[in-house]
Design goal:
alpha/beta; 5-stranded mixed beta sheet; Arc Repressor Mutant, subunit A; 17 helices; about 40% helix; about 450 residues
Length: about 450
């Protein structure tokens, strides 16, 4: 006998049917999911039950379910049957717009999360020195040998990956790993709070985000242990200057997390988005899990977003999977830009410029954090280009700043499944130092609550 819950869903699907082929059944169910009639985690009827009600063969329904599973819309949940994951057309634009709608709207734009262009090293000399003729060749490796040497040397105290390549920025690197490893319905552990792009990438690749909490040292071990009971395929973490909280993973915390992960098969993606402008020590889980860690270091915040380059180190097998996908695309990142980056990483003037930028970002971060604390506001972290501030009411705090022509990023789009909106993110990296007391004073009307990050 069919359960009442199953009968309801079955009847809903039957009412939507127009075409009884596998593609027709898949289209009907897809439409019901995308319009919200069948929400996430709805249990779908079994193949046998639906086939009987639609008067089609079991293989017809099975083929329809297979089509939807490939799109990451549904998945088999073992004894719990087949369940709805999410709509294929996740509203990425809404999530991103809610986190970026204030960017560029105010005289003092502290919402963007971008570096200060005045602190980027000049690429003029590097462009003059690049030998264009030497890169006019289709038969090239994916990474410039000299550049690989420089990156490996900078990582040597924390990790030594089997293979190293360059990607089109950190997001592209994360996307490449997810594309190579994820199957529809795989769970992916993500930090909470985190940047919307991470959640978007996971869902676009058919994954199910599993949020874990943070404290001042990074991901909380007990939160990760709880998430691991769902057998996630991937863990994505930001080891330094976590966006938006600014917390950095210590070596002690890295060892704790590695111990929690040891008995699992979860692959770790370390997204070092701050890279060379971070003041925190470079740490990595690769010290304990060398065969399961992919390290990605962006050069966007340190050397310029328009270079569109990040270094990625990975175990041999994982890199091989990514390279198979890459051969069907661009093949390699521009050798011209890689040579420019190599010049910037080895030129004494550029190295000095990065040192100055790192100190300036730290100064701006600390000035605002100190000013906020003097006003009774709670802040988190000590690194990166952003400050995560606890407020009584997100909307009221943002309106107060906007009234003085200051734009900041709302915290709610960065916080996963939170019932309260009580944080804002302020990009200290572009804040004039003298404005720190003023910004803090404008926020002072927001009452503080008990300390917490997520």
């Amino acid at each position: 006998m069919t359960a009442p819950e199953e009968l309801d869903v079955t009847a809903t699907i039957m009412a939507a049917m127009r075409d009884f082929t596998p593609r027709g059944i898949a289209a009907a169910v897809r439409e019901l999911i995308e319009e919200g009639t069948l929400p996430s985690m709805t249990r779908l009827p079994t193949v046998r039950v639906l086939a009987g009600e639609l008067h089609v063969s079991a293989s017809t329904v099975s083929d329809a379910w297979r089509l939807l599973a490939r799109e990451g819309i549904i998945r088999s949940a073992g004894r719990n049957g087949t369940v709805v994951l999410r709509a294929r057309g996740i509203d990425i634009s809404d999530r991103l717009e809610r986190s970026t709608w204030t960017v560029g709207r105010h005289g003092m734009d502290l919402a963007s999360g971008t570096p200060d262009v005045s602190l980027l090293p000049s690429i003029a000399k590097a462009l003059r020195d690049v030998d264009v003729a030497s890169v006019a060749n289709y038969q090239v490796d994916s990474v410039l040998p000299g550049l690989e040497d420089v990156v490996r040397e900078s990582w040597s105290r924390a990790l030594s990956p089997d293979r190293l390549t360059m990607t089109h920025g950190a997001y592209a690197g994360v996307a490449a790993v997810l594309s190579a490893l994820l199957r529809a319905g795989d769970r992916v552990v993500v930090e909470n709070p985190s940047i919307p792009g991470v959640i978007d990438l996971v869902e676009l690749h058919g994954g199910v985000p599993m949020p874990v909490g943070l404290d001042e040292h990074g991901i909380r071990p007990e939160s990760l242990a709880s998430a691991l009971t769902t057998r996630p395929a991937v863990l994505i973490l930001q080891p330094r200057g976590q966006n938006p909280t600014g917390v950095s993973m210590t070596w002690e915390r890295a060892e704790e997390l590695a111990a929690v992960l040891e008995s699992s098969r979860t692959i770790v993606i370390e997204d070092d988005h701050c890279g060379a402008v971070s003041t925190a020590e470079l740490t990595s889980l690769a010290r304990w899990l060398p065969d399961r860690v992919v390290r990605i270091q962006s050069f966007s915040k340190s050397h310029g977003p328009d270079l569109r380059l990040a270094a990625m180190g990975a175990p041999r097998e994982i890199m091989h999977r990514m390279e198979l996908n890459r051969r069907l695309g661009g093949g390699w990142e521009s050798m011209l830009l890689q040579r420019v980056l190599h010049e910037l990483l080895t030129d004494p003037e550029s190295i000095h410029a990065i040192t100055h930028a790192r100190r300036t970002y730290k100064l701006r971060h600390d000035l605002l954090a100190s000013a906020c604390r003097e006003q009774g506001l709670e802040t988190y972290g000590s690194d990166g280009l952003n400050l995560w501030v606890r407020v009584d009411n997100e909307s009221r705090a943002m309106r107060r700043l906007a009234s003085e022509d200051i734009g900041v990023c709302p915290g709610s789009p960065l916080t996963w499944d939170s019932p309260v909106n009580d944080h804002i993110r302020i990009t200290t990296g572009v804040m004039p130092e003298a404005q720190a007391p003023r910004v803090a004073a404008l926020l002072a009307g927001s009452a503080v609550a008990e300390p917490r990050i997520a």
